[in-house]
Sequence to fold (132 residues):
Amino acid sequence: MDSKPSLPVEVITVDVHAAKELIHSGHRYLDVRTAEEFKKGHVHVENTLNIPYMFNTPQGRVKNPEFMEQVLSVFKKEDPLVIGCQSGVRSVYATTDLLTAGFKHVLNMGGGYAAWVENGFGVTKPEEQIGL
Fold:
């Protein structure tokens, strides 16, 4: 009995310490926050990429209809990825979608950018915000 297609995918969440180690050992970091959030500050690691999972609209946040297409234009399904957002909620949804689409090595960063900052890890911010 092959019931695999109907089984939900299992999202593996790692804390920011594990995420940092994974990123420094070869995983790519995908920030799924809005472009506005990303520009205010983001995780300081090499090759950080921002592909928003949701957009802010006058009606509230809506899912980016081209999210999967945009991710597939940059990454292969075999690429090891760590997915992060602001607090770890959107990244769970993004990770679920990626795993459902056949990505093999995708991990959710629990706590998101907020936890990264709380732990004192490096961040990249626009020049005018440095020192605030």
Q: What stands out?
A: The first helix runs from residue 16 to 24.
